[in-house]
Design a protein that fits this description.
By secondary structure, the chain is α/β, with parallel strands linked by helices. It is built from 13 helices and 18 strands. The protein is globular, with a radius of gyration of 21 Å.
C-alpha cells in the first residue's frame, strides 16, 4: 500500500488533467455541460482568478448554498486553488439557519441559487440584509454580517437580484489576474490548510462547522475509491447532495483521485438517475437506501439497461440486507459497498471492499479504513471491546 498522499486539491486536479486530459471529468445530462479533465481545470483556474480579483484571499470563507450545480463543482476546486475555505450550506436551511452559518463561519462571499423546492433563497437573503437591493454588488456592509462582502447569483443572468454579481462576472473579473499570480498563490498552500468547512448537526445544539484539510479529504476520498476499485474507466453517478460529505468526498474526491468521470444529478429523482445511468453507461452510483428503494420501485425500472453497472455506495442510514440484495441482483451492482463514518472524520471510518464476500458486504460496515484509528466501547461497561467481540 502506498503511503498517504501529500497533495492539495488544486495540485491533484492539475495532476489528473495531465494524466487523463481527454477523459470526461464532469457531465450533466440535463444541460449543456460536459468537461474533460483538462477543460475542467481550465474553467476552475479561470474562476479561481475571478475570486482573487474579487478580493478573496487565503483563509477567507466562501459559502455555497445550492443544489448540485456545475458552479458548485467549479467553486469547490477554485477556492481550494487560492487557499480559501469552501463552506457548505444545507439546501433546506431557512432564515435563522443561514444567518447563523454566515455569522459563525465569517463568510466573505456567498454563492447561491434563487430557489430550491419552494424555499425562496432570494427572499430569505433580502430579509436578512434589508439594504441589499440598494447596495452595489461587492459592497455589502451589514452590521449583522460584518464579514460578508459579496453575493454571487447562480441562475439566469437576467434574473440576477439587485446587490448581487452574476456568476459569469467571475470570468470577466479573472481577466485582471494573471496565471502567474494564481500559480504563486497555489504554491503557498499547505496540505494541512483547511479547505472545506462542512456544517453538520447532532441531535442537540447548533450545527458545527467541521474544518477539513486538503490532506483529510484527498486521502479519505482516495481510499474510498480504492475500496470500489475505481479507475479512469469508471463513471460514477452522483445524485446525493454535494453539501454533505457523501457527495463532496465519497463522490467527488473518490472520483478525482482516480480520474473517474462524475455524472451529476442536481437533485435526486428516481427517473433522472435511471436515465443518467443508462445514457452515460455509468458503472457506479451512490445513494442512501431510500434512493435505491425508489429506483427499484419505479414503474419504468425494467425498461432501463443497467448491465454496465458494477459498484457504488449505499450509506447514510442502516442498509437493509433485502435492499442490498435487490440492488446486486436487479441493478447489476455486484460490487456495491457500504461505508460508515462521520463528517468530523473526513468522513469514512469503515468500508467494505469489492473483494469482500456478498455476505460480509450486506451484513457489516466493512473494515477500518487505512491509517484510521477506531475502537468500540461497550455502552454498558464503558470498556473497550477486544477483537472478535460483538
Amino acid at each position: 500500500m502506498e503511503g498517504l498522499w501529500e497533495i492539495t486539491l488544486g495540485d491533484l486536479l492539475n495532476k489528473m488533467a495531465e494524466r487523463f486530459p481527454d477523459n470526461d471529468a464532469v457531465v450533466y445530462t440535463s444541460r449543456d455541460f460536459r468537461k474533460t479533465y483538462s477543460q475542467f481545470r481550465e474553467i476552475v483556474d479561470e474562476a479561481a482568478r475571478g475570486f482573487m480579483a474579487m478580493g478573496v484571499k487565503k483563509g477567507d470563507k466562501v459559502a455555497v448554498w445550492a443544489t448540485n450545480e456545475p458552479e458548485w463543482m467549479i467553486l469547490m476546486f477554485a477556492t481550494a486553488k487560492i487557499g480559501a475555505t469552501m463552506v457548505t450550506v444545507n439546501t433546506n436551511y431557512k432564515l435563522l439557519e443561514i444567518e447563523y452559518l454566515l455569522k459563525q463561519s465569517d463568510t466573505k462571499v456567498l454563492a447561491m441559487v434563487g430557489e430550491v423546492k419552494g424555499n425562496n433563497y432570494i427572499e430569505t437573503i433580502n430579509e436578512l440584509i434589508p439594504s441589499l437591493s440598494e447596495t452595489k454588488p461587492g459592497e455589502i456592509n451589514d452590521e449583522n454580517l460584518p464579514f460578508l462582502k459579496s453575493i454571487l447569483y447562480i441562475g439566469n443572468k437576467e434574473d440576477t437580484p439587485k446587490g448581487m454579481f452574476h456568476w459569469d462576472e467571475l470570468y470577466k473579473m479573472a481577466e485582471s489576474v494573471s496565471e502567474e499570480e494564481l500559480y504563486e498563490v497555489e504554491r503557498s498552500i499547505d496540505i494541512h490548510d483547511v479547505v472545506n468547512m462542512q456544517y453538520t448537526s447532532g441531535t442537540t445544539g447548533f450545527p458545527k462547522g467541521v474544518m477539513l484539510t486538503h490532506y483529510n479529504i484527498v486521502n479519505n476520498g482516495r481510499f474510498i475509491g480504492d475500496c470500489m476499485a475505481f479507475s479512469e474507466k469508471d463513471r460514477l453517478c452522483i445524485p446525493v447532495p454535494l453539501f454533505h460529505c457523501f457527495g463532496c468526498v465519497l463522490g467527488v474526491m473518490a472520483s478525482v483521485t482516480h480520474g473517474t468521470t462524475m455524472v451529476m444529478v442536481e437533485q435526486f429523482s428516481a427517473i433522472r438517475v435511471l436515465e443518467s445511468l443508462q445514457a452515460e453507461k455509468c458503472t457506479a452510483v451512490h445513494g442512501v437506501p431510500t434512493m435505491f428503494i425508489s429506483m427499484l420501485a419505479h414503474p419504468d425500472f425494467e425498461k432501463f439497461d443497467l448491465s454496465h453497472m458494477r459498484t457504488g455506495i449505499m450509506a447514510g442510514s442502516p442498509c437493509p440486507e433485502k435492499v442490498m440484495q435487490e440492488v446486486i441482483d436487479k441493478m447489476h451492482m455486484s460490487e456495491i459497498c457500504i461505508t460508515y463514518g462521520l463528517t468530523e472524520s473526513s468522513p469514512a471510518i469503515t468500508m467494505s471492499a469489492t473483494t469482500d464476500s456478498v455476505a460480509l458486504r450486506v451484513s457489516t460496515v466493512g473494515k477500518r479504513m487505512p491509517y484510521c484509528e477506531a475502537k468500540i466501547i461497550d455502552p454498558e461497561t464503558g470498556e473497550e471491546c477486544p477483537n472478535g467481540v460483538p
